[in-house]
Amino acid sequence: MDLFDKTRSDIGPLGQYSVFHGYFTFPKLEGELGSRMKFMGKERIVWSVNNYLGLGNHPEVRKVDGEASQDWGLAYPMGSRMMSGESSHHERLERELAEFVQKKEAMLLNFGYQGIMSLIDAILDRQDVVVYDKDCHACIYDGIRMHVGRRLSFGHNDISSLERQLERAEKFAEKTGGGILVISEGVFGMRGEQGKLKEIVALKEKYSFRLLVDDAHGFGTLGATGAGAGEEQGVQEHIDLYFSTFAKSMASIGAFVAGDPDVIKYLRYNTRSQIFAKSIPMPIIMGVLKRLELIKGNTEFKDQLWRNVRMLQDGLKENGFDIGNTNSCVTPVYMKGTPLEAGAMVKDLRENYDVFCSVVLYPVVPKEVILLRLIPTAAHTIEDIELTIHAFSEVARKLKAGEYDGTQGQNLMN
Ligand SMILES: Cc1ncc(COP(=O)(O)O)c(C=O)c1O
Q: Are both 44 and 188 inside the same structural domain?
């Protein structure tokens, strides 16, 4: 059989959605990054972009991004940091990031996804046990898949399930002489629930483990200084490895991990995705330094973000919407309906109300549940929020009245 036969007969679980290419999958949002962007040639209110603090299009940020590209080009430094791609600016950014998230040392990662995968691989040996929340992001799953030792998952944010797995993990580790790594997230990006970091940390009294937290959605948005979910819950110092990406609040690309100096040094010399891959280009480094300078000691962006979050979440609740258990900026709206109804409703939202948001369906949520996911940012306006709540009320009423039945759904692309 030709290896490529499958590419024509079975395009995979996500591939089935390729009929919606350009609309539900791979849609093009055009124009300046902000709360209003063009989709299919018309301005829409956008709720799908993780530009939480609105920094992506901040004039000072744009200036530095542009100037740094002029000054350095996109190539420098070349090679991996270990071989030829080191610079004092990379080192400075690491020092400043470590300070910001209240850790002793930090290491840059050229991409978040590959970075965290690879650091999970680096820190775990065959005799170690990894215990992870079953709702963790795909990049954590992929990191865990590389681990040849014991892998145990616990129910999402279910502390008694975690405790049961820690008991099993300890028995295994006693036999092998290995250690235990627990992995959770600061904020679970689909439903907006913070990981129960305080409760997880409390288990350190009883069990011996190290804690890795992926705080992609918490960095910059939570905690008094913006240091994330650990700071928000008062346990930042008990997170042994703190990870975040630059792809959300920092509106850039790249990532970092922070922790104790000996652990970071170990990771520098053992994280294969960094040792054997190119260093982050200088314009990205200079741009992230600028973003960090803007948010350090200045909560103006975070305060504006949270004013918008509260207005949106309170407004949705007051209008009878179920937003689940979010305790972060991520705002899920749960409705009951079929995937076809969901498609027709989102199409109506986009085309007749000019509201662009993402829709999440089974298997991420149970069958018959529609999750519309809104990401408020500091860049949204009161008008954006009011128009969106009005649009949601309208489409929810139509959904209940059965107006998005199969017939409409089948004509999604018309
Ligand atoms: C929770 C979480 N971890 C990691 C990543 C991967 O980060 P990056 O986009 O920098 O590769 C993402 C997505 O951006 C994410 O949502």
A: no
Residue minimizing CA distance to atom 14 of ligand 1: 247
In this predicted structure, what is the pLDDT of residue 9?
87
Last residue of some domain: 295, 323, 348?
A: 295
Are residues 209 and 137 part of one domain? Answer: yes
The pTM for the full model equals 0.96
Q: From the CB of 111, is ligand 1 less than 6 Å away?
A: yes
Which residue's C-alpha comes closest to atom 8 of ligand 1?
112
Residues 93-149 pLDDT 10s: 999 999 999 999 999 999 999 999 999 999 999 999 999 999 999 999 999 999 999
DSSP class per residue in 231-265: HHTT-GGG-SEEEEESSSTT-SS-EEEEE-HHHHH
255 lines ligand 1 (CB under 6 A): yes
Tell me the average pLDDT across 297-324: 97
| Count of domains for the chain | 2
Domain range holding 318? 3-52+299-410
